[in-house]
Every structure is written in structure tokens, then in C-alpha cells.
């Protein structure tokens, strides 16, 4: 969590910035834990955090999900074909590797499904699933608009050509820009904190983000992942 604190600009004091919760660049161990927990919860059909909090859910990363789904489903028959040509002594190791790859694919799908963006009366949570997230105070968020662009990298990251912007997505493609009324101070632990005024995200339906922020209904509201 990054807490608001006093910053200065020359001799002029800048007011305290709102508090924002951020999980930047999770460690490999943290990512593995998130993937494992999500897969177990998905299999057991446990309710998502968004359902418990009665927040508006907004799905994201559809392109990445489709690619991962195709690769995972293709790996299943491929594993049986490859096992026929692998020498018998190596088959147990090959089988273990294939099982891990297939479980990893389903874990990534489960993590994205169970960690959508959410909008509630108190917060706007922008998530990637297992590569970091940011939770903004609802009163700081002004609006959302369509904005297709490519921002290299994955997870929660800086935007190279805009020092007051963040990107929060699993892939490089984003299609929504969220604008803030009140900037928030974010520490990504890779340099100086950023005074963030815009956040670029990926959403399966950009219009849902705008409707949720305006307080209207959005499809993709509560439901099992």
C-alpha cells in the first residue's frame, strides 16, 4: 500500500494526495501463489471478492485469454502425441512437464476471470490478475473513455511518453483511459513515485467502464467466475 504524503514542488507545498493501494511487480513466488489460489477457487466455484463486495465487475484481457485458451487446449492432444515418440524412461518426466504446462494455462485463465476490474461506491480497482493492480479512491476518478494504443510491457507500469500516466494490463494493448480529478501518488519501486493523473487499462467492453463510473448497470455484474 502506498500512503498519501506531503510532497513539494520548489518552495510551493503540494497538498496531501489521496491514499492508493498498489501491488507493483509481484515476485515470482507471489505470482505462483495467486495462480494456485485462483485455480483452486475456480475449481471449487468459490465466490469472487467482487461478488462478496457487490461491486460492478468489468472483464478484461479477452485477447490474452483467447490465446491462452487455444494454447492450453492444443497442448492436451499434443501431449499424447509427443508421449508416443518420447523414450519410455523419459515419459514420466514428460508427463509431469505437460501437466504443469496445462495447469499453468488454466491457472492463468482462472486468475484473470477471478480478478476483474471492479467499480464500487468507494473504490475503483484495476487489476491484471497476477502481475499487479491498483485500487483508486472512487472520488478521485473523473471519467473513462476509449483510447486504443500499445504500451510496451506487462502488468502495472509507467507510460514512456507520459510521466503522469500508468498502464495496468496483462498485454501491451490497452483500450480505455481513466482520468482522475485528483492525482494520486504511486510508488512502483522502480524509481521516483509518480503523481498519476491517468491510467490506461484493457477492458472487454470499454463502454461498461464508463457506465459503471456513471453509476449505471453494466453487463458482467456479479456472477460466478
Features:
225 residues, alpha+beta, five-stranded antiparallel β-sheet, 12 strands, disordered C terminus
Record the SSE blueprint.
Blueprint: E1 7-9, E2 12-14, E3 21-23, H1 28-43, H2 49-52, E4 56-58, H3 62-85, H4 91-114, E5 117-119, E6 123-127, E7 133-137, E8 141-150, E9 155-159, E10 162-169, E11 173-186, E12 194-201, H5 206-214
Parallel strand pairs: 10-12
Antiparallel strand pairs: 1-2, 3-7, 4-5, 5-6, 6-7, 8-11, 9-10, 11-12
Helix pairs in contact: 1-4, 3-4
Description:
The chain has 225 residues and is α+β, with helices and mostly antiparallel strands. The chain has five helices and twelve strands. It has helices at 28-43, 49-52, 62-85, 91-114, 206-214; strands spanning 7-9, 12-14, 21-23, 56-58, 117-119, 123-127, 133-137, 141-150, 155-159, 162-169, 173-186, 194-201. It has a five-stranded antiparallel sheet, with helices on one face. A five-stranded mixed sheet has the order 8-11-12-10-9. A two-stranded antiparallel sheet has the order 1-2. A hairpin with a 2-residue loop joins β1 (7-9) and β2 (12-14). α3 runs antiparallel to α4. The longest helix is centred in the first third of the chain and has 24 residues, at 62-85. It is elongated, with a radius of gyration of 20 Å. The two termini are 27 Å apart. The model is unreliable at 1-15 and 216-225 (pLDDT under 50).
Amino acid at each position: 500500500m502506498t500512503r498519501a504524503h506531503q510532497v513539494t514542488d520548489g518552495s510551493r507545498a503540494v497538498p496531501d494526495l489521496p491514499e492508493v493501494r498498489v501491488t507493483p511487480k509481484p515476485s515470482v513466488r507471489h505470482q505462483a501463489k495467486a495462480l494456485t489460489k485462483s485455480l483452486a477457487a475456480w475449481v471449487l466455484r468459490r465466490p469472487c471478492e467482487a461478488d462478496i463486495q457487490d461491486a460492478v465487475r468489468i472483464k478484461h484481457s479477452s485477447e490474452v485469454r483467447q490465446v491462452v485458451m487455444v494454447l492450453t487446449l492444443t497442448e492436451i492432444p499434443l501431449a499424447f502425441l509427443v508421449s508416443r515418440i518420447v523414450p519410455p524412461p523419459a515419459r514420466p518426466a514428460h508427463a509431469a512437464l505437460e501437466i504443469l504446462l496445462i495447469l499453468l494455462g488454466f491457472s492463468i485463465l482462472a486468475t484473470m476471470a477471478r480478478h476483474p476490474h471492479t467499480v464500487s461506491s468507494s473504490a475503483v480497482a484495476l487489476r491484471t490478475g497476477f502481475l499487479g493492480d491498483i485500487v483508486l479512491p472512487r472520488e478521485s476518478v473523473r471519467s473513462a473513455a476509449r483510447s486504443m494504443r500499445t504500451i510496451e510491457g506487462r502488468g502495472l507500469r509507467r507510460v514512456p511518453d507520459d510521466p503522469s500516466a500508468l498502464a495496468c494490463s496483462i498485454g501491451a494493448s490497452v483500450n480505455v483511459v481513466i482520468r482522475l480529478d485528483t492525482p494520486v501518488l504511486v510508488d512502483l519501486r522502480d524509481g521516483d513515485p509518480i503523481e498519476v493523473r491517468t491510467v490506461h487499462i484493457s477492458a472487454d467492453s470499454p463502454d461498461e467502464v464508463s457506465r459503471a463510473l456513471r453509476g449505471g448497470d453494466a453487463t458482467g455484474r456479479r456472477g460466478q467466475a
